[in-house]
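name: query_chain
kind: protein
chains: 1
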Amino acid sequence: MADSRTIGLARPVRGVKVYSRQMHGGCLPTFGRVELDFEPVPEGTEPSCEFACTARPEPNAELEEALVQGVMLELAGGPTDGPQARRSTAVSALVIVRSLTWHWVDSSERGFSRLGSLAVREALQCLAEDREPQEITTRVSLL
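structure:
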């Protein structure tokens, strides 16, 4: 529930793309690609995440849920990858998943949770720096 420590987005941030490459020769399933839009919501409205795409190669409920969990945890300012990543303020936003690509062997729930978290961080950085999103290409850490 939104409270006095929850802030809204100042403007929409559309086209946030995060891509995690698969490690060649590695056994950890790190592949994933997402594109998200972040829209402001009226004050007092709960943050939410909705899908406006078809996942490739096909929908995968576990990976989609993991992505949503990563997004919502990061928006809430909850515990993430480390204390330096925590915020004292929650952010209220409507998050729209525009694209989601995964692989049968090389993708994991933990990887998609991290992709969601990285996408939120990029959207908030875009607002802080008054810029458009830059594609993030990385290998997410599963450890």
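note: The chain has a mean pLDDT of 87.
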